[in-house]
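Input.
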Amino acid sequence: VRGPGLFDAYYAPWRPRAAVLRDGWFMTGDVGVVEASGALTLRGRRKSTIVVAGLKLFPEEVETVLTAFPTVAEARVVARPHRALGELPHAEVVLHPGVTLDRDALARHCAARLSAWKMPVTYTVVAAIPKTPGGKIARR
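Output.
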């Protein structure tokens, strides 16, 4: 992003605006594409990228598929190290009240919508997804 009202300095660690910008642009770490219509679609964040055998995936893409499943209220996809492949995606899901998780049905749902290497290796039911103070999914 860029613009005259962006900021005067970067707070932590403190650095003057000129030291933070690259050719006048502030690099947010967001990854997106400009569609043919001109709309900007955000795909994920550079820091949250999971690399499976050299292929990059954005957890947000997988989380969108997971939360489209009827019993899943919230989801978080995290990377876990793998000796041969580098990292593999693992899913944590919060269910809607009063339902149980059919892991096989969830896996079929994901397989119909994701490439095989984007498929979560595990699906763990959790009570809540950790969030940052700003309400975003905590990735670390």
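Residues 16 and 133 are 25 Å apart (CA to CA).
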